[in-house]
Write a structure and sequence with these properties.
The structure is a single chain. The chain contains one helix and nine strands, in the order αβββββββββ. The chain is mainly beta and about 160 residues long.
Length: about 160
Amino acid sequence: MKDAAYKSLAVVEDYTNPEIISKHINNTETKTFTLLPLSNEYWIGQGFIEGTLYYIFRVKEETSEQGYEIAPIVNSKLVYDNKNTVEVIKQNITIKYKSKVDGQIKTQDIEEYHYIFHVSNEKIKDYGVIEERIIYSNTTAFFPMFIPSWFPLFVR
């Protein structure tokens, strides 16, 4: 039983942190959305969710309700050009990697998202810690500090 649990953890490690040999972009799709203001002064905000810093924003979209969206800051770029839009770039990528579990060379198809925010000013609303995860032995507890009514359409 202990070996099965160890192999399970190894598979998670293999998937999340592989030794990448090559990365090939199969195709790229870009969509541009109009940003909606969070308030009179702010077009985007930022806050921490489980230790990762995200931009928080709203977009005008005809196909769904207008809600909050999130984008990891590490995958984002800010451009100050008064357009008040966000470009969402989706890339379908095939990675070739060496498995840490069995040493085999494997391939996997993934999607990566990148965001370019075109905003009118440098003001970013600070939400601080939005959601924090605290681990007690075998259980996980979530303590929401601020949870807007967003449904992330773009984050995978």
